[in-house]
């Protein structure tokens, strides 16, 4: 009896993991999705790892719109975290990159795309305006932030999104012989050598 319960639990885990499997979004995957006519703005994206944005709060700032404020090394920092597997949507499609928003609001997006030396099968990575050592400088909510954790973050989509091919299917109706065929207006082509 106990073995049967373990088998049922194992099957449920396998079925659940198969139904929610994801694939990294790359140039190859993008081309396959676009070839089905599915707009990228209709896909559900996910981030593959934790990402942390931070910026120093200036003395004349009176309000922080999102994230938490932490006092660190004599500075007040505004920190915004993005947890692994957080769902996001594509708000804009550009050549070799997409803007992905993980929360509602103007200028609340991160840019993911093909990096300089990436192949078509390499996943789209988080992109920055510039890099200072291991930190990426980006603009988020109209303010300058640094990506601390998650500088190698990529995006994923569910593998089921690749199978959304539109199939146009019809059945041939057939033809019957007509009793009064209309004469052909052009003579049939002659066969050479006969």
Walkthrough of the structure:
The structure is a single chain. The chain has 194 residues and is of the alpha+beta class. It has a domain at 44-163. It contains 2 helices and 13 strands. The strands form 2 sheets. A 7-stranded antiparallel sheet has the order 1-13-2-6-7-8-9, with no helix packed on it. It has a 6-stranded antiparallel sheet with strand order 4-5-3-12-11-10, with no helix packed on it. A hairpin with a 2-residue loop joins strand 4 (68-72) and strand 5.
Strand portion: 25-35%
Task: Give the helix level as a range of percent.
Answer: 10-25%
Radius of gyration: 27 Å
Tally of strands: 13
Gap between N and C termini: 83 Å
Total helix count?
2
Quote the average pLDDT.
80
- CA-based shape: elongated
Kindly report the spatial arrangement of strands forming the biggest sheet: 1-13-2-6-7-8-9
Structural class, by secondary structure, is alpha+beta
- Uncertain parts: 4-19
**What composes the largest sheet?**
7 strands, antiparallel
């Amino acid at each position: 009896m106990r073995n049967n319960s373990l088998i049922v639990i194992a099957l449920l885990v396998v079925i659940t993991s198969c139904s929610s499997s994801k694939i990294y979004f790359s140039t190859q995957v993008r081309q396959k999705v676009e070839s089905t006519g599915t707009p990228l703005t209709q896909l559900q994206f996910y981030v593959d790892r934790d990402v942390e944005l931070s910026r120093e709060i200036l003395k004349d700032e009176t309000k922080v719109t999102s994230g938490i404020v932490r006092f660190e090394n004599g500075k007040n920092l505004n920190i915004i975290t993005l947890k692994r597997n957080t769902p996001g949507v594509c708000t804009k499609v550009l050549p070799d990159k997409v803007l992905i928003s993980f929360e509602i609001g103007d200028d609340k997006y991160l840019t993911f795309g093909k990096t300089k030396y990436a192949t078509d099968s390499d996943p789209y990575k988080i992109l920055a305006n510039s890099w200072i050592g291991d930190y990426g400088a980006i603009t988020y909510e109209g303010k300058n932030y640094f990506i601390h954790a998650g500088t190698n973050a990529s995006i994923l989509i569910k593998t089921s999104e690749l199978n959304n091919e539109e199939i146009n299917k019809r059945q041939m109706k057939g033809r019957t012989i007509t009793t009064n065929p209309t004469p052909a207006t052009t003579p049939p082509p002659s066969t050479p050598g006969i």
